[in-house]
Amino acid sequence: MSKESILIIDDNELYIDALEAILRDDGYEEIFALTKGHNVLATLENNKIDLILLDISLPDVSGIELYSRIKENKLYSHIPIIFITGHGDVKIAVEAMKLGAFYFLSKPVQPYELQTLIRCALDNSKLQREIASLKVQLQTNQSLIIGKTPAIKKVMTRIAQVAHCDATVFVKGESGTGKSLVAKAIHESSLRSKHPFIAIDCGAIPSSLLESELFGHEKGAFTGAVRKKKGFFLRAHQGTLFLDEITNLPLELQPKLLRVIQEREITPIGSDKEIKVDVRIVTATNDNIEEMVNEGKFRRDLYYRLNVFSIDLPPLHQRREDIPLLAQHFLNKYSPNTKKSFSKEAMQTIINYDWPGNIRELDHAIEHAVIISNSKEIQKQDLPSALQSKTSSPSLNFDSLYTLKEMEKKYLEKVLMHTSYNQTQAAKILGIERKSLWRKLKRFEISIPQNENPNEAK
Ligand SMILES: Nc1ncnc2c1ncn2[C@@H]1O[C@H](COP(=O)(O)OP(=O)(O)OP(=O)(O)O)[C@@H](O)[C@H]1O
């Protein structure tokens, strides 16, 4: 029995029956049939089709035109197509071969010939996909994502598994673990890589503006809408839209996003026209989204739609063996010409540190060390003070300890006090971006005294 499914497009129902019988005889169970061409894209959208048998002369559209329509759509361009030609159609079939059709057969088709050709086309297509996936793995390994531990290798494999299809991906992990990098790697390794990659931080855009930023608006749709605006969905058409910090998407906007994912169309504010969009969605968060779903703070149906395929990023302290590699990578980045190195003691300090801000904190620490250092070798004292002061943990009494959340809040308050509420400096010490700090302040309801740092840029 074969798992693959085949679509037959032929205007002659008797002929469809005959082809179906040959295919069933060869063990294919999933067989779809169309007598006209116009429904082909809907059939491909709703079913997983592995191969198409296409009659070259159809009543409503020519086989060649239909072939081009399928191949132009990158979601289906990988599907092998075998033309079935009537007497006298051979010239057109040769034309189709030049365009890239897998092969053509003349009526009456010989069962054995058809079965062999189909097997050959399916094997070839599987091989092509495997090669594409290996290329992706190689690309991911070589360029963007650095690391050799099993934990990060698993992430690379997950990226390779999902990149070539269009599934929605949810990237989870603490701040600074590389979620944006993974989203970019998925895009770069996908068939959409030549189209736009648009990243939006849902927490950084005021909620009142988010709807028009995402879906666009018509001129005059609301006060201040002086001209028509294309939203992020349309700007990302045919590419990938990365919605970072998705848990910041206001509850009232969540049904709208759900609708876009289901219907694949958007309605700009102030318009009554629906516009088809072809966008792959990747989302990320460092919050516990499952908890938010259980508390009713994030819609369950939307979460299920977004979480079709998830990638979990480990915190850096759980993959310490990658720290030297990453540290060296950032050292090369910040001292490309001087070719600095680490002293043994400096490297040991880097490895021993817990990196609460993960790879971003490591990145900043190495940049800091390169600026401070005045020799070819980075010394322990060139590293930020947080690394120097690391002492071994005292024995703990678990009954009187704070929860992780309480600790985080206390630590944030301490750092803010230390920097006299200068958020830029505080974010640097914490190894996070200023906007992440801002989100944390909002979440923990920490307020900044009004008269502190009046000149700090917002
Ligand atoms: N495996 C990696 N190899 C090389 N660089 C990495 C890796 N992971 C992360 N980085 C670098 O670390 C920094 C932080 O990564 P990124 O912005 O992707 O994290 P994030 O999880 O999206 O953070 P946040 O939750 O704050 O948005 C970036 O400079 C990124 O290039």
Describe the fold and architecture.
The chain has 458 residues and is α/β, with parallel strands linked by helices. It folds into 4 domains: 2-131, 3-Layer(aba) Sandwich (Rossmann fold), CATH 3.40.50.2300; 144-312, P-loop containing nucleotide triphosphate hydrolases (Rossmann fold, 3-Layer(aba) Sandwich), CATH 3.40.50.300; 317-388, Helicase, Ruva Protein, domain 3; 399-443, Arc Repressor Mutant, subunit A (Orthogonal Bundle). Helices cover 45% and strands 13% of the residues. The strands form 4 sheets. The chain has a 5-stranded parallel beta sheet with strand order 2-1-3-4-5, sandwiched between helices. A 5-stranded parallel beta sheet has the order 7-8-11-6-12. It has a two-stranded antiparallel ribbon with strand order 9-10. The N and C termini lie far apart (64 Å). Residues 145-147, 173, 175-181, 244, 286, 326, 329, 359-360, 363, 432-433, 436 line the site of adenosine-5'-triphosphate.
Structure summarized in a few sentences:
The protein has helices at residues 13-25, 40-46, 63-72, 90-99, 111-142, 150-163, 179-188, 207-215, 232-235, 254-263, 289-294, 300-306, 323-334, 344-352, 358-372, 385-388, 404-418, 423-430, 434-443, and strands spanning 2-9, 28-34, 51-55, 81-85, 103-106, 169-172, 197-201, 240-244, 265-266, 275-276, 280-285, 309-312, 341-342, 377-378.
